[in-house]
């Protein structure tokens, strides 16, 4: 497993890195059989230390958590506890969904764009307001089942997830609705 442990404008000592590797390794060994890499970033916000951790599993799932505390070790422990709770909560689902999967999840490339409106004077015609592309980047689109997509959405704490449906190969979207439920968009079923 690869670890990337860094700090944003703070120095991370060797002792903290060793502690993070040992603790995360313990959590991952307990709940996931095939992790690929973990990224842990420490930063400071005012008087608090913040620890953000993201673990990518070969099954296509991404688990992420964030912890805050006045001490840096306590911030990591808070983050680790949240991650442990997420992994424990989904342990049965992870096992049930991935026992039949022999190969890792396949990813396809896709382009992601961030659009921002242009600033126009107040007396300008409102029909002429068009957003402009301010960022363009590559993103990965996993080829997974709907159940795995919902699990990924919940584990990562995201609002929406675009994926290729393993059942029929079409592009689908799952998203968190305002009422707390999960919505699923499958264009193939809209006849």
Question: Would you mind describing this structure in some detail?
Answer:
This protein is α+β, with helices and mostly antiparallel strands and 191 residues long. It folds into 2 domains: 2-98, 2-Layer Sandwich (Double Stranded RNA Binding Domain), CATH 3.30.160.100; 106-189, SHC Adaptor Protein (2-Layer Sandwich). 29% of the residues lie in helices and 40% in strands. The protein has 4 helices and 9 strands, in the order E-H-E-E-E-H-H-E-E-H-E-E-E. It has a 5-stranded mixed sheet with strand order 5-6-7-8-9, with helices on one face. The chain has a 4-stranded mixed sheet with strand order 1-2-3-4. Strand 3 (48-57) and strand 4 (62-69) form a beta hairpin. Helix 1 runs parallel beside helix 2. GO terms for molecular function: ribosomal small subunit binding. Keywords: Cytoplasm, Translation regulation. Belongs to the HPF/YfiA ribosome-associated protein family. Long HPF subfamily.
Main traits of this protein?
191 residues, alpha+beta, SHC Adaptor Protein, 40% strand, cytoplasm, HPF/YfiA_ribosome-assoc
Helical content class? 25-40%
Just name the CATH architecture of the largest domain.
2-Layer Sandwich
* β-strand number: 9
Arithmetic mean of pLDDT: 81
Structural class assignment = alpha+beta
**CATH topology assignment of the largest domain:** Double Stranded RNA Binding Domain
Strand order of the largest sheet: 5-6-7-8-9
Q: Beta-strand level of the residues, as a percent range?
A: 35-45%
Overall CATH class of the largest domain: Alpha Beta
- Largest sheet composition: 5 strands, mixed
Query: With helices defined by DSSP (H or I, 4 residues minimum), what is the helix count?
Result: 4
GO cellular component, one term: cytosolic small ribosomal subunit
Organism: Fuscibacter oryzae
InterPro entries: HPF/YfiA_ribosome-assoc, HPF_long/plastid, RHF-like, RHF/RaiA, Ribosom_S30AE_C, Ribosom_S30AE_C_sf
Subunit structure: Interacts with 100S ribosomes. Associates exclusively with 100S ribosomes, which are dimers of 70S ribosomes.
């Amino acid at each position: 497993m690869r670890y990337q442990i860094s700090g944003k404008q703070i120095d991370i000592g060797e002792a903290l890195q060793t502690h993070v590797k040992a603790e995360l390794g313990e959590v991952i060994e307990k709940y996931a059989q095939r992790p690929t890499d973990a990224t842990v970033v420490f930063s400071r916000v005012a008087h608090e230390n913040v620890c953000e951790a993201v673990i990518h599993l070969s099954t296509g799932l991404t688990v992420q958590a964030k912890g805050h505390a006045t001490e840096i070790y306590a911030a990591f422990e808070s983050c680790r506890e949240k991650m442990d709770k997420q992994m424990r909560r989904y342990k049965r689902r992870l096992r049930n969904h991935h026992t039949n999967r022999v190969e890792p999840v396949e990813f396809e490339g896709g382009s992601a764009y961030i659009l921002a409106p242009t600033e126009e004077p107040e007396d300008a015609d409102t029909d002429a307001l068009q957003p402009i592309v301010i960022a363009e980047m590559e993103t990965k689109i996993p080829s997974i089942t709907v159940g795995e997509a919902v699990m990924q959405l919940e584990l990562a704490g995201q609002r929406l997830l675009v994926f290729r449906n393993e059942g029929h190969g079409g592009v689908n979207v799952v998203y968190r609705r305002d009422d707390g439920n999960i919505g699923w968009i499958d264009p193939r079923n809209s006849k």
